User: Fold these one by one.
Assistant:
Number 1:
Amino acid sequence: MKVLDKEFEVMMTQEEIDSLVSDLASKLDTEYQGKDLVIVAILNGSFIFVSDLVRKMKLDPEVIFLKYKSYKGTRSGEVKVQLELEDDIEDKHVLILEDIVDTGKTIVRISQDLKEHEPASLKYGTLFLKPDCYNSEVELSFIGKELPNKFVLGYGMDYNGKGRSLNELYQLKD
Ligand code: IMP
Ligand code: MG
């Protein structure tokens, strides 16, 4: 399938993604039972994942979206804050959720910013992780699935703004 100037092929079906999201939802229900949970989701890529996830959860977490941007085309770059935290997370259990973690630069930057707000706990989760690229001390407590080091799109993730609405996960053809 062609998106802008590049060819992509299916890497994961809608059903496979759905079962990863269901597994994460039940893990979070167990982990945060009886706690005041705030999910901080990172825009833009996580909007589909997190909206599916919270609807599968039995708990009813608060959901906040922040916007950080790092990718340019198919490469990781400098992290910029585009939407800041205005909500109160002090003494709440905060879970930062990403669609996909690559170098970890975005998550390091977010973690520095949110620690200043003194949450009761701060954990990190991602639907997908590229372990070969990960280069950060931050521990990811919830990982949907590890992926090979390939550029992907679909299920919220984009290539220069396109491809987010695709239901499957696609990888760049080499
Ligand atoms: P990091 O800061 O290098 O970990 O990059 C993380 C951010 O880059 C994620 O929030 C994604 O939105 C984006 N990203 C990383 N890998 C991909 C990819 O393969 N396709 C699309 N976006 C990606
Ligand atoms: Mg992102």
Note: The chain has one domain: 14-148.
Number 2:
Amino acid sequence: MKILGVIFDLDGVIVSTDNCHYLAWKRMADEEGIYFDRKINERLRGVSRMESLEIVLERAQKSYTAEQKQALAQRKNDYYVELIKSLSKADILSGALDTFELLRRRGIKIAIGSSSKNTPLILKQIGLENAFDAVADGNAITHSKPDPEVFLLGAKLLGLPPENCLVVEDADAGIEAAVAGGMRALGVGSAAGNPNATYSAENLAKAGFETILAD
Ligand code: BG6
Ligand code: MG
């Protein structure tokens, strides 16, 4: 099946927000006296905000009510938004812009498929708010990765069947979601080498899209 559309995850594929997420969760966790480190932060990759909070709270000494959890997630997000306000075009990851240009030249549609509710803000910060044919994000879905919902929505918005779409992901949960949605996946960054990914590369600059498209 020909690749007619490419759906990109945002965090870790197009822009590196890892450290901002880490610093925001760390600040909130420290204030609550909850142990949190970069290894735990790795488990939050591709996972929704509330599911991430549950992972952070595994180390909490007390239990929190649903209302308190909402407040904790809100506080973390306030810290996070403060940090991502300093993102700019310079934070776009290596190879991303060239990849979009190549795909456009080939008439291939491009979309975002991200769990993040901050997707519109991040895209604006890095100057890519008008760069995509469709944006499927955490604001439009109920089930986050590894559920395929966000990618199926992306394909639908592009007007393409899943089998004609390629997903680009840095999270294992995202590769799982792509496969569950009947799409091929290119694993980059932390997901490079994921056995379920059809293709693998360190980053977009090394992905060899010409070869993938000729497949
Ligand atoms: C994903 C990140 O893109 O978005 C996760 O990889 C994050 O780490 C998730 O938890 C939700 O993000 P937000 O911006 O809605 O809190
Ligand atoms: Mg990601």
Note: The chain has nine helices and six strands.
